[in-house]
Write the structure tokens for this entry.
Amino acid sequence: MNVGIGSFFASSASRDVPIDDAVPWAGTETVYVQSGRQALRLLSERLWSQGYRRLVLPGHLCASMIEPFDTRDWTVRFSPMTDRLHLDPGSYDALCVDRPDETVAVVAEYFGRNVTEETTAAVARWKDEGVAVIDDRTHNLFDRRRSEATYAFGSLRKLLPVGDGCFLQGLGDVPAFGQQSVDPSRTSWAAMDLKAAGTQPGSLYETYRAAESEFGAATEPAAMSSRSLESLRHLDFSAMSEARSFNFATLLEGVQHLAVVNDDLDGGTPAYLVLRTPEAEALQAMLAERGVYCPIHWPRPLRVPPQLPWRDDLISVPIDHRYGRQEMEYIGQTLNEVAKRAD
Ligand SMILES: Cc1ncc(COP(=O)(O)O)c(C=O)c1O
């Protein structure tokens, strides 16, 4: 078995003929920026200038979903999520009710699960009441249904082999982008090229980390790289989605004794197979020793208030289109062995 399952994507040789399987999020005017943080920064500035002052965020989230709002004095509140980390419309209701026409609500359904009917109805209701709703589709890139939110965005490089990129819908215009001091797309693509060339871990991960730190610094909205834009035309979204679903089902059969968080996909394309385990970080380290790299979604951001309960018992196992039955069986056996040893 080859080592190195998971981790970031390698670039692939571009095929001559684009596939032009329409991107799943097609259908409304779409603007492309380089990262999810840039999309949120753009929305934060725009909504602030329109008089919005209150921000409701999901009670479980990545630090990079909070940071873009830091340049303005938003009154931030977090909406607790359900035990399985679904959005809880009732808790959003309570936080939006006060001054809906000053409220921005960021909603997200994580791990590839389809948005529930209850949430879809709640989003429509909040919009009617004047709330500006932002739908974070980063884990739902393969969902072809239109979002009901005022704005929708999805960071692309987590689930797709592109160096940078994030789609953003709902603006109604194409913003003019300024010059950036840092361009993370070049370094990010460089890391993917190094990986494709079989470069050994040292400089590979150094370049990847440099790219991630540049994404942290490049907060001003800028256009997605032309290389990513072109790559989207060569991706077979249907095949990638099928591979993910197949791998998820295969791995699910192999890990029967572990608690799976997102087996309630409701027809959605899984982003990862997310497991609940009391020693998530220890398990992550043990799996990495065996060549399986699993992200944790997410370490508790510093900005989250201490009274908000946090789920720190999750680990996300890769099931993407790079892999098939053989890798899923290897991961399943490895997980079972490691979990047994940790008992
Ligand atoms: C759900 C979610 N939304 C938004 C972001 C921010 O995306 P980016 O890293 O492209 O800024 C992330 C990053 O991890 C994320 O996981």
